[in-house]
Specification:
alpha+beta; TATA-Binding Protein; 2 domains; four-stranded antiparallel beta sheet; A-D-PHexomutase_a/b/a-I/II/III; Phosphoglucomutase-1; isomerase; metal ion binding
Length: about 325
């Protein structure tokens, strides 16, 4: 991403080159973490604090993920980035030409964007993490502007002129457009957003290198114990392709309504409902019991996700989310 960032920031936006760090392309990425997050880049947070910077951005070497940092090392969660962009998209030239239609995010992303979708009458869908599940949602979205997001510092968008579910440079430019329009700092934009919509706090706990057989047994417990209801969906069958026309892309398409809400179904791959678009069976992986969601009172939830590794062992991830109302005294508490 170094050459791209140099061209945009230095050549076009006239950012001093001394403010663009680690810009040279290296085979080992400078031995720095490929996934920018607060835990792996505490050195950058300290750098922002020491230099009293207004904003700092860490972009991953492949340009897919970025970490947004405000004054005093204030970290913007990827879920909040998605929500802020969706809420303030009208100040971004991209969305002035392509009005925002909806939001797609992984189930492991906080529900912050759901509040924006409800407020702005946008469509909002959850997807199982992974390219195989985001890709089908992006295909028919090419004629409708959609923003995509996940909890691993990745945000992107799709329309007839652009397509990328993870694009750190696009996310950076979206944030700069928002700041220029608001004439406020990153911290101030987030504070105002929370006072308007409330704050969703999301934490993740990983258990790595678990035996595969043990984890499958553990996950099967949740299939038998915790379930969710699938909403009514409209489906049409065309050979090996199933088409869900929730966005009404093709008004001439004959749709048969299928009722799915009369029984409890576990949230696993077999029963996963794609947000919208083309769903090819070749994209459906054989892993089962991958992700479960346990909803609790006041918007709180626990998500349990299995993530496979390369050597017959797996990682078990717990995502814990709580919601704070705009009037909550803890709203502006430090990220830690």
């Amino acid at each position: 991403t170094g050459p791209v960032v140099l061209d945009i920031l230095r050549n076009r936006l006239k950012v001093p080159e001394k403010n663009i760090l680690n810009k040279d392309s290296l085979e080992d990425f400078g031995s720095l973490p490929a996934d920018p997050n607060p835990a792996s880049r505490e050195d950058f947070l300290e750098f922002i604090i020491e230099n009293k910077s207004d904003i700092g951005i860490v972009i991953g070497p492949d340009g897919s993920r970025c970490l947004i940092v405000g004054e005093n090392g204030f970290v913007v969660s990827p879920s909040d980035t998605l929500a802020v962009i969706a809420d303030q998209c009208k100040c971004i030239p991209f969305f002035q030409e392509n009005p925002l239609k909806g939001i797609v995010c992984s189930i492991c992303t906080s529900q912050a964007s759901d509040k924006v979708a409800k407020y702005s009458s946008l469509l909002s869908f959850e997807a199982v993490p992974g390219w195989a599940y985001f890709a089908p949602a992006m295909l028919p979205a090419l004629n409708h502007s959609i923003v995509f997001g996940e909890e691993c510092t990745a945000v992107g968008a799709s329309s007839c002129s652009y397509c990328g579910d993870k694009d750190a440079v696009w996310t950076l430019l979206a944030w700069l457009s928002i700041l220029a329009n608001a004439k406020k700092s990153v911290n101030e934009v987030l504070m105002e957003h929370w006072k308007k919509f409330g704050r969703n706090v999301l934490g993740r706990l990983d258990f790595e290198n678990l035996p595969l057989a043990s984890l499958e047994s553990f996950m099967s417990f949740f299939k038998e114990t915790y379930t969710i209801r699938l909403k009514k969906i409209k489906t049409g069958d065309f050979g090996n392709v199933a088409y869900r026309d929730q966005l009404h892309f093709d008004p001439s398409l004959r749709i048969e309504e299928t009722h799915k809400g009369d029984e409890d179904l576990a949230f696993d791959i077999d029963n996963y409902v794609f947000p919208f678009g083309l769903v090819r069976k070749s994209l459906m992986r054989n892993d089962i019991f991958q992700t479960y969601q346990i909803q609790m009172a006041k918007g709180a939830r626990v998500i349990i996700r299995r993530s496979e590794s390369v050597c017959n062992s797996t990682t078990l991830r717990f995502y814990i989310e709580v919601c704070m109302d705009p009037e909550d005294d803890r709203l502006l508490a430090d990220r830690k």
